[in-house]
C-alpha cells in the first residue's frame, strides 16, 4: 500500500510539472509554430477552391441563361468546360470570368445609352405628333371658317 501511495504521489508531482510546463509562454509559442494558421490550412483552401468553382459555375449558368437564342458565346462554353474539368487552374477561369463580366458591363452601359437615346427620340416624336395634330386641327378650323365665309358671301351676292 505504501508503494502505491508513493507512486501516486510521484504521478501527481509529474502531472503538476507537466501542467506547469504546458502553461509556460515557451510552450505556447512552440505550440503556435507547430500548428498551421487558418490561412495555411489545407482544408480551408480546398473548401475555398470548391466554393469558388461552384460560384463561378453558377455565374456562368446565369449569364448563359440570359443570352439571347442563337447568340451563344464560345467563351462561356470554354469557361464552363474549364470549370467542369479539374486540370485547368482556377486562376485562368477567374480571369476569363472577370473579362467577361467587364465586357457585359460595357455592353450594359451601351444598352443604357441606347435606351436613353430611344426615349429621347420617342419624346421628340410624340411632341412632333402633337404639334402636327394641332396644325391639322387649326387647318380644319380655318377651312370651316373659310367655308362659312364663302357661304356668307354667296348669300350676300345672291341678295
Can you offer a commentary on this structure?
By secondary structure, this protein is an all-alpha fold. Helices cover 86% and strands 0% of the residues. It has five helices and no strands. The chain has helices at 2-22, 25-34, 42-66, 74-84, 90-158. It is rod-shaped and about 155 Å long.
What are the low-pLDDT stretches, counting only 5+ consecutive residues below 50? none
Radius of gyration: 42 Å
Q: What is the element string, with H for helices and E for strands?
A: HHHHH
Shape: rod-shaped
> What's the main sheet like?
none
Global structural class: mainly alpha
The DSSP helix count reads: 5
Number of strands: 0
The percentage of residues in β strands lies in under 5%
List the helices and strands and how they pair.
Blueprint lengths: L1 H21 L2 H10 L7 H25 L7 H11 L5 H69 L1
Task: Based on the model shown, name its key terms.
single chain, 159 residues, mainly alpha, 5 helices
Please sum up the structure shown.
This protein has 159 residues and is an all-alpha fold. The chain is built from five helices and no strands.
Amino acid at each position: 500500500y505504501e508503494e502505491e501511495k508513493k507512486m501516486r504521489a510521484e504521478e501527481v508531482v509529474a502531472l503538476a510539472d507537466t501542467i506547469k510546463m504546458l502553461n509556460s509562454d515557451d510552450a505556447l509559442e512552440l505550440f503556435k509554430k507547430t500548428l498551421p494558421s487558418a490561412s495555411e490550412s489545407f482544408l480551408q483552401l480546398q473548401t475555398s477552391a470548391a466554393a469558388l468553382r461552384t460560384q463561378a459555375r453558377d455565374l456562368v449558368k446565369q449569364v448563359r441563361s440570359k443570352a439571347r437564342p442563337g447568340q451563344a458565346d464560345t467563351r462561356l462554353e470554354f469557361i464552363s468546360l474549364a470549370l467542369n474539368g479539374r486540370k485547368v487552374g482556377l486562376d485562368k477561369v477567374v480571369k476569363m470570368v472577370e473579362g467577361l463580366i467587364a465586357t457585359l458591363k460595357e455592353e450594359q452601359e451601351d444598352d443604357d445609352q441606347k435606351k436613353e437615346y430611344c426615349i429621347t427620340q420617342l419624346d421628340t416624336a410624340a411632341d412632333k405628333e402633337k404639334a402636327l395634330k394641332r396644325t391639322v386641327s387649326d387647318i380644319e378650323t380655318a377651312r370651316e371658317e373659310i367655308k362659312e365665309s364663302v357661304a356668307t358671301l354667296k348669300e350676300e351676292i345672291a341678295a
